[in-house]
Amino acid sequence: MYFKAKHIIFLFAIILVASCAKENEQQQASAKTMSKSDVYNFITEEMTRTNKAFDWNTASDDLIFSAGQHSDAVFSIGYQPNGFTDIKDKIHQIDLQEKSWTDTRVMIEKMIIQYEKTDKTPEGFSVLAPVDKKLPHIYAVIKNKELITKLRTLPEVRFVEPLGYSLEPEVSTRSTSGCSGTPNPNINTADYTVLTPSSKRPWNFATHNIPTAWNTAKGQGVTICIIDTGAGNSQDNLGSQFASGNSTGRTITKMSTLYSGSLWWQTLDTPHDQCGHGTSMAGLAAAPWSNDGNAVGAAYKANLLTIRAVEDVLINTSNERNGVRDALYAAGNNSNVKIISMSIGSPTSSSTVSDGIYYAYNRGKMIFAAAGTSFSWTTWYGVIFPAWMPECIAVTGVKEGSTNVKCSVCHDGAEVDFTVVMERTANADRNSIGLALTGNDPKYIGGSSCATATTAGVAAMLWSKTPSATRTQVFNALRNTAQFYPNANSNLGWGRINASAAMSNI
After folding, report:
1. What average pLDDT does range 109-127 have in this prediction?
2. How far is the CA of 399 from the CAs of 225, 295, 314, 321, 419, in angstroms?
3. Which pLDDT tens digit goes with each residue over 149-168?
4. Which pLDDT score, from 0 to 100, does residue 14 have?
């Protein structure tokens, strides 16, 4: 009887241990991945607290891993040889074929395969994307959270981030100044001035003394790069008519860095705009003073390079983050480009994109970025990424009049440098006007996107007056003649730009 009872107790103990072990495994499994809503709530709460884009460098291993699992499980890993410093300032000088760089990359790749216990995904793809030859990045599918923790402890690893994570809620929404390419034949006649022979000057250009500045320079000899959704193939003002009318003697080049498909099987997309946003931004910066009745841009004699890097105004997929990075790399290596305009962004940071910003900035490019235009789920939010980076000049939109009120959907904050008036006080739907995807009727276009592209055009005008000027001198001319100089506003920076006064200051 004792022997039987002893065995029953022993058997119960085994069952209890097994049950506890199973429960422990379940607890570990549940702790391994945060829920999608928990990830979203944590990030948005942190952004509310800091009033700026979420920085993955401040995130926990759990959060980074979980965010990756709730997207495509592809992680971007920035690397450098042990002992290498100041990559932010040296990234444009790196030789990735140099032995210390290749050895570092191979070491990390071997570690990834070791921890993942395979070199293939369940779908049969390599866990490692093809070797990146532009910048020191490794892309890998990671399913083991311990690997994230290990990588983040290595001195050779600069960052580990989920490449494809998007903060968007379950139902995707677009920005107010996002995708819309439809022309508007009913633009209020008070919102433009007809120029001879037949072109429309946006009403807000006069607020910034752009027409007066045209008496001195129009952007001639300067190339502006618009990194956005591309340029409309059916919009002849960004095609056959780009150098027409009073805009002769200049060029437009269109390219794409946006790929479709996974990082393993990619197809390069067309450079032609499918959204409408990039077309409008290119138009605001440099549309021709033509004779077809369409809207003219600020620097109507400037050259244009349009790069399709995103599908819409959000940088929120693996392909888009890579696309923007590659666009910045291409613009950085283009000796003709002086100005980069980015009316796109994200509520979460991306070190992948940041490296592209560092690269282009170190190549001497002047980078303008939109401070942010609200979604229905981001109306509480401050300056977005990458506009808050010190290498970028952040621009936002304000309403007309003497009051300093940001536009209805515009973001502001301490990182803002300049503002552009682009919204009627009494009617938030009456903004500046720019090119539509097709046709000779312009469309209303607003938000910080509009303000950014317009400011980029004004900067091109200044540079065309003094081609030998430095990037700092162009910035100082804008700053020293802006609304609030010498005392910056806490949320609107130096305030409204004054093109004519800046022209006299360069």
Report:
1. 87
2. 27, 20, 24, 32, 10
3. 999 999 999 999 999 999 86
4. 31
What fold characterizes domain 189-503?
Rossmann fold (3.40.50)
Structure tokens at 79: 């690397």
Per-residue model confidence as pLDDT tens digits over 229-283: 999 999 999 999 999 999 999 999 999 999 998 877 889 999 999 999 999 999 9
Contact call for residues 18 and 26 (beta carbons, < 8 A): no
Which pTM does this prediction carry? 0.91
Q: Is 224:231 a contact under the CB 8 Å cutoff?
A: no
Cβ-in-10-Å burial (0-12, 13-18, 19+) of 321 comes to buried
**Of residues 393, 387, 328, 384, the one with CA closest to residue 356:** 328
CA distance 466 to 82: 43
For the segment(s) 36-162, the CATH number from 3.90.79.10, 2.70.150.10, 3.50.50.60, 3.30.70.80 is 3.30.70.80
- For the chain, the structural domain boundaries read 36-162, 189-503
Work out the percent of the chain whose per-residue pLDDT is above 70. 90
For 45, other C-beta atoms within 10 Å of its C-beta total: 11
Question: What residue spans of 308-364 are helical by DSSP H?
Answer: 318-332, 351-362
Tokens at residue 29, please? 């499994």
The pair of three-digit structure tokens given for residue 199, joined into one six-digit string: 């072109």
